[in-house]
Write a structure and sequence with these properties.
Layout lengths: L1 H19 L2 E4 L2 E3 L6 E8 L8 E4 L4 E8 L5 E8 L6 E8 L4 E9 L19 E4 L1 H4 L30 H6 L1 H7 L3 E4 L3 E2 L5 E3 L2 E3 L9 E5 L5 H14 L3 E6 L9 H4 L21 H4 L5 H9 L14 H18 L3 E4 L7 H14 L4 E4 L6 H6 L15 E2 L2 H12 L8 H9 L11 E3 L8 H4 L4 H11 L5 E5 L40 H19 L1 H5 L1 E8 L2 E8 L2 E8 L5 E4 L12 E4 L5 E3 L1 E4 L4 E7 L2
Parallel strand pairs: 2-8, 9-10, 9-20, 10-15, 15-16, 16-17, 17-18, 19-20
Antiparallel strand pairs: 1-3, 3-6, 4-7, 5-6, 7-8, 11-14, 12-13, 21-22, 22-23, 23-28, 24-27, 25-26, 25-28
Helix pairs in contact: 9-10, 12-13, 12-15, 15-16
The structure holds calcium ion (2 copies).
One calcium ion binds next to loops.
Length: 624
């Protein structure tokens, strides 16, 4: 009798201590009424073997249809089906063995209302995206700059490679500045937890301030304000009529991620006998002569030594990533995705994840960063008009080919294939895309030299670039600080093009978020962006109009954007002289127009357009 009592007491004690141990679950919770209602919950214990335990789920409308174990016995994958009429609540999931029982309290939350109208709205060519790095933009909460229980404990603004303390509350603080500039959508470099130590890169010991070293997809980094701050940002942006794009990384994780250092099975990561980096050559995916060895190295080689390459051919990994993307859209209420390192990911997986997101959220949009310099390459990674062995289904791409062409048109003299002819030729190849309007058009970003430096710090060329950005087809994206003429080349490191926005941090000598803090030249640049963005916001031709471009002649490149009965005519004069162009040369774009209004000055002209040397002009055409 005493023996039995003792064993009962022991069992109770075991139960208590076992329950006290934390079980992690991925996804951390799920939602009612989702299309994706067969979920795979990866359960992880840091200390105790889970495989072999009996799993019990007792909740109305939730069925456990499978339990899979891995070579690492501290993991299980539970297959749960959540019925369409299942109520929100807490599901007790028990892991039972002869000696103890562990309980995971798994939460099912109500799904959001307003799908496609209040969130998951999609970001389109009618929008203007502002790309910023939260660590470098604005510090709204100095108490979260560093944490002693994280691997990188440094916040030090004097070192460009360290974390600087900027965060999501800082972004919230500047939403009105962005809205005033004409921005409709904020894209932040990733805000997911990057609990990584400093890592050696060519420039020195680098922190994960840029956010691309995920250690937990389900946690927003506390140094950016955590999940609650992110929810508040999305909510505040939506209240202001703005949208949020999230930056996804499917290709790799930080080396400290459990997926690598405590993997459920070794094949969650693409592993090589010795360190093997990617060859970064996307051509091998569409080259009819490519070698299989080169293709494998592009896809499975690691991006850098501290970023293990994720094996998306493993069905558990693929489901993990798909559920993460759906979960984040639902949990935070974001509106679109930018997908990092697109060309390095398993191609069938990419189509699967896009399909799952669009099935769940038909209005959602996404674009991928394939970073390829040919139009055919960029089109390959999107929905396209080409006959190729693999057809991608991505809506759009980060438009590096047009970026190169715009810079060439601004910086180089006209030649048969150079200068404005390169821009004309590049755009001519839009026939390869299913929908070129889905491409993200940009002058610079966090991975390139800054635009103002690339154009020799010339304010006239700045206006040409901004003019083209906001009138050519696509979803325009401005990189933070470009509007106030922030400059630098990526020398000696990328950090030089990722400096702090002046005024975003306590103690800054100047606050360039305000007109008073900016120089006359900076205000000229800011006001130019704001005025043109304001015009674009009202102009359906510039947002969604059909493009017609005319062969460059005598240093002048002309294109029109037409929607129904409205037409806008843009003239880039890269010659050294004033050019006067008769209306009749462009009659085919707008039959019978009799006058044109310069959209920036309001000047009304008739019969001919005069455009000065080195100028870009935008005219709205009027019948009378
Ligand atoms: Ca902070
Ligand atoms: Ca890869």
């Amino acid at each position: 009798m005493r023996k039995k009592l003792l064993s009962t007491l022991l069992a109770a004690a075991c139960l208590l201590s076992a329950n006290a141990q934390s079980l992690e679950a991925y996804p951390s919770h799920w939602f009612t009424k989702m299309q994706w209602n067969k979920i795979q919950v990866i359960v992880r214990s840091k200390t105790e073997q889970l495989s072999g335990k009996k799993v019990s789920v007792n909740y109305p409308g939730v069925k456990l249809t499978g339990v899979d174990s891995f070579s690492n016995k501290r993991y299980l994958a539970l297959q749960l089906t959540i019925g369409s009429s299942t109520n929100a609540g807490v599901i007790p999931i028990q892991f039972i063995s002869a000696i103890d029982t562990l309980t995971l309290k798994y939460v099912i939350k109500p799904s959001r209302s307003g799908r496609g109208t209040q969130y998951a709205q999609g970001v389109r060519s009618s929008d203007l995206i502002y790309l910023l790095m939260p660590d470098r933009f604005s510090n709204g909460d100095p108490t979260n700059d560093a944490f002693n229980n994280m691997q990188d404990v440094v916040a030090n603004r004097s070192n460009p490679l360290n974390r600087h303390g900027g965060d999501i509350p800082g972004v919230i603080r500047q939403l009105d500045y962005l809205k005033d500039l004409g921005v409709t959508t904020v894209w932040m470099t990733p805000v997911n937890e990057n609990d990584m130590p400093l890592e050696k890169e060519s420039a020195g010991m680098l922190s994960g301030y840029h956010g691309y070293w995920f250690t937990n997809q389900y946690q927003i980094d506390p140094r950016f304000g955590g999940n609650e701050a992110y929810k508040k940002l999305v909510e505040t942006a939506h209240q202001k009529g703005m949208k949020i794009i999230q930056d996804a990384v499917y290709n790799h994780v930080g080396i400290e991620h459990w997926m690598n250092k405590d993997a459920p099975a070794l094949d969650w990561i693409n592993r090589w006998p010795g360190y093997t980096g990617s060859n970064h050559k996307e051509e091998v995916l569409f080259d009819p002569y490519a070698s299989e060895k080169d293709k494998k190295q592009l896809l499975d080689g690691w991006f850098v030594p501290h970023l293990p390459d994720v094996n998306q051919r493993n069905p558990y990994v693929a489901n993990y990533l798909i559920q993460f993307a759906i979960w984040a859209t639902e949990e935070f209420g974001i509106d679109g995705w930018r997908v990092d390192t697109y060309k390095y990911c398993d191609e069938p997986f990419l189509n699967r994840i896009n399909t799952a997101l669009l099935k769940e959220y038909p209005s959602l949009t996404m674009f991928g960063e394939a970073w390829t310099n040919s139009v055919s390459g960029n089109a390959y990674f999107t929905r396209n008009q080409m006959e190729v062995p693999f057809k991608h289904n991505m809506l759009g791409g980060v438009d590096f080919p047009m970026n190169g062409a715009i810079l060439e048109a601004i910086n180089q003299p006209e030649g048969w294939t150079q200068g404005i002819n390169r821009l004309h030729m590049t755009q001519a190849q839009d026939f390869l895309y299913e929908q070129p309007l889905n491409n993200c058009l940009f002058l610079d970003n966090h991975d390139t030299d800054r635009f103002f430096s690339m154009i020799g710090e010339d304010i006239n060329k700045f206006k040409l670039g901004i003019g083209l950005l906001l009138t050519l087809r696509g979803i325009p994206q401005i990189y933070y600080g470009t509007e106030i003429l922030m400059k630098n080349f990526k020398n000696p490191s990328d950090a030089m093009v990722r400096l702090d926005f002046p005024g975003g941090f306590a103690g800054d000598a100047l606050n360039k978020f305000t007109a008073n803090g900016r120089t006359a030249l900076e205000n000229e640049a800011f006001n130019y962006v704001r005025q043109l963005a304001g015009y674009r916001k009202k102009s359906l031709p510039l947002q969604i109009g059909k493009t017609k471009q005319f062969l460059p002649v005598n240093g002048v490149y002309v294109f029109t954007r037409t929607h129904q009965k409205q037409s806008v005519l843009c003239v880039l004069n890269r010659s050294n002289e004033m050019r006067e162009i008769p209306f009749k040369a462009y009659e085919e774009s707008f039959t019978g127009f009799t006058k044109a209004v310069d959209v920036l000055t309001g000047e009304v002209v008739s019969q001919s357009l005069k455009v000065g040397a080195g100028q870009f002009k935008i005219f709205e055409l009027k019948a009378k």
